[in-house]
Amino acid sequence: MSSDETLRERSKIYWFRMVLGLFIGVLCTLLKLSGSRGLALAIVTYILSIIIAKNVLPVDTEKLEEIDFYKEGIGVYFISWIFFWVLTFNLANAIAG
């Protein structure tokens, strides 16, 4: 297995988690979650993303190590989640007046 193939497979997980973080951030605003409830949703969703990455995404599991499913994209997931939660929360409050 070449490093390009491994990088390509890891990239799929990375981008999946980035988009998932965006979606969960917006969902936290739509559900009007605050504080620990929003964090709990983000953590539970991240755990579910491990299952999705292993079983649903078109990822060749033979090219990746087990730890890649747990750690790949964790930073971008939580950063995009908090960014889009704060952004949409502030936009919603600004529009509401």
Number of helices in the DSSP assignment: 4
The helix content, as a percent range, equals over 70%
Please tell me how large the radius of gyration is.
Answer: 15 Å
Structural class of the secondary structure composition? mainly alpha
Global morphology: elongated
Mean of all residue-level pLDDT scores: 91
Largest sheet properties = none
Termini separation comes to 56 Å
Low-pLDDT regions = none
In percent, how much strand structure appears in the residues? Answer: under 5%
Q: What's the number of extended β-strand segments?
A: 0
- List SSEs in N-to-C order: HHHH
SSE layout and pairing:
Elements: H1 3-30, H2 36-55, H3 66-71, H4 74-96
Helix pairs in contact: 1-2, 1-4
Explained architecture:
The chain is an all-alpha fold. The chain has 4 helices and no strands. It has helices at 3-30, 36-55, 66-71, 74-96. Helix 1 runs antiparallel to helix 2 and helix 1 (3-30) packs parallel to helix 4 (74-96). The longest helix is centred in the first third of the chain and has 28 residues, at 3-30. It is elongated.
Question: Which key terms come to mind for this protein?
Answer:
97 residues, single chain, mainly alpha, 4 helices
Question: What is this entry, summarized?
Answer:
This protein has helices spanning about 5-30, 35-55, 65-70, 75-95. The protein has about 100 residues and is mainly alpha-helical.
